[in-house]
Amino acid sequence: MSGKPRLTYLNGRGRMEPIRWLLAAAGVEFDEVYLETKEQYDKLIKDGFLLFQQVPLVEIDGMKMVQTRAIMSYIAGKYNLHGKDLKERALIDMYVEGIADLMQMILMFPFSPPDAKEKNLESIKERATNRYFPVFEKVLKQHGQDFLVGNKLSWADVQLMEAILAVEEKLPTVLSGFPQLQVFKNKMSNVPTIKKFLQPGSPRKPPPDAHYVETVLKVFKK
């Protein structure tokens, strides 16, 4: 096995995508193993690879890590994306928690029944424009810096960038009332490692389609 982290998940975004974003932002190459059948998933459980019988699974530095937030906290700490002191880390964690709440809605959207999609999309728009994006707009405006915490790229910036693009895919004009976030998005797009991740052919996954939803339901069926 190479020295690269190895990511085991489905061939789609889901709960692994923020991990891919963070590794890419840190300039870390990684290998991926894609689950396509329930048998593959059951074997991971049987072999004791999944502590809580859940993926994502990331093999890094001799560890088999599960739980998205624990994995990302480790990566952020390892690659200096978690603030310079305890106070900065607390701010970063707080922002990350908020972004994760918004991303949970995005994550579940493809699995909405057809008759609920419009309502759920409206909920995403309402939460993004009234609860979450105003917070980050205010933070950036108040301190007048390029990044959310300590004027240095952190885990929170990477997560916010992912969230902005994910919401924009569904609601292209969502940033129209947020000039600071528009500037932030442009600056983040030009961070060299992130710019590379946004290019075609990178490990970034496309928006989930019907095939992805079908595979998720097949692999994780009870």
From TrEMBL:
Annotated coiled-coil segments of the chain: none
InterPro entries (UniProt xref): Glutathione-S-Trfase_C-like, Glutathione-S-Trfase_C_sf, Glutathione_S-Trfase, Glutathione_S-Trfase_N, GST_alpha, GST_C, GST_superfamily, Thioredoxin-like_sf
Cell wall biogenesis/degradation as UniProt keyword: no
Alphabetized GO MF terms: glutathione transferase activity
Assigned keywords, A-Z: Transferase
All residue ranges annotated as the GST C-terminal domain in the record: 85-209
EC number of this enzyme: 2.5.1.18
Stretch forming the signal peptide: none
SUPFAM superfamilies reported in the protein's UniProt record: GST C-terminal domain-like, Thioredoxin-like
Similarity remark: Belongs to the GST superfamily. Alpha family.
Name under which the protein is recorded: glutathione transferase
Organism of this sequence: Leiothrix lutea
Gene from which this protein is expressed: Gsta3_1
